[in-house]
Amino acid sequence: MSYTVITGANGFIAQHIIKILLSNGHKVIGTVRTQEKADTIANLFDNENLILEIVPDLNAVEAFDPLFKKYNTQIKYVLHTASPVDSTLTDLQNDFINTAITGTLSVFNAIKKYAADSVESVVYTSSSVAGANFKTFLDPTAVINEESWNPDDREDVVDILSAYSVSKKLAEKAAWNFKEENKDVIKFRLSTVNPFFVTGPQAFDETAKGKLNTTASYFEQILASKPDGNLAPFIGSPAVDVRDLAKAHYLALTEPRFDGQRIFLDGENYTTQQWYDVIHEKFPELNGKIAKGQPGTNKFQEGSMAKMDFSKSKKLLGFDQIPLKQTITDGMRQLLRVRGIPQN
């Protein structure tokens, strides 16, 4: 019997990955920080092939040792998706950067100690912001590809966004460095998945009934906007469907061709107005109930951002991504359904 370990199992992205793993016959061990979260995830999936283990503190150097010691050579695959993204955290260096690095190294050290001979593949969930800072993204003369790295470091951290960006960069670098420094001991394949703004429906309707976190909350912000008010502030572009992202993780985990690769997932660029235009088109029942802006105007202007060249990633992945209009439609339809808002 072999297991696939996924950290941060209660996360938006992780739940979609777990669905794919289970549907492909994997026996999954998911880690969460509390018993309450373990109970919630267990009830959502209701699958005997999913085991939940509690790892309460990612800041602990040996946080994952008990888990890997318990299952040791039965572990074949590892996905590390857990990372601090809580906007209420205030100690930027410790809560974001140190936790991200320590959590990553804790996973890798645990593999080295207890499962070096059995783990075949590891995927680390990184981010597009590990490849560039926001200044670079907004520079039309810049080119960003799979070889790009965010130039910012600890001393450049001034707010939550910059702290998150630097945390993803340094944690990813820690993963690559660990693999290189321990190549005589650990033999697993390593790849990272670096998405842009992740959006789309929740893995379960039940999750959508509660308060949505991070990027998924944008649908809530749109629904809460006032008919005569401003459009909800936009928080990211280009956008990636979470279901495509989960698929990319699975391919990177199971296909040897992804070894040593940084897989960047971008998508279509929509302005805030374009998001609203799609929602008003697909859900006319919301006309007069949410903000409208100036339909048909303020479309994304090609050449207004850095050039993204992720042709290498697209070739490796080999699938067509879900159109953003479909992603927006599916995400909003789910939210309306679970909130009991009638749809035409």
From TrEMBL:
UniProt xrefs under Gene3D superfamilies: NAD(P)-binding Rossmann-like Domain
Stretches assigned to the NAD-dependent epimerase/dehydratase domain: 5-259
InterPro entries: Epimerase_deHydtase (IPR001509), NAD(P)-bd_dom_sf (IPR036291), NAD(P)_dehydrat-like (IPR050425)
SUPFAM superfamilies referenced in this protein's UniProt entry, alphabetically: NAD(P)-binding Rossmann-fold domains
Oxidoreductase is among the record's keywords: yes
Oxidoreductase is among the record's keywords: yes
Family membership noted in the UniProt record: Belongs to the NAD(P)-dependent epimerase/dehydratase family. Dihydroflavonol-4-reductase subfamily.
Protein name: Uncharacterized oxidoreductase
Source organism: Kluyveromyces marxianus (Yeast)
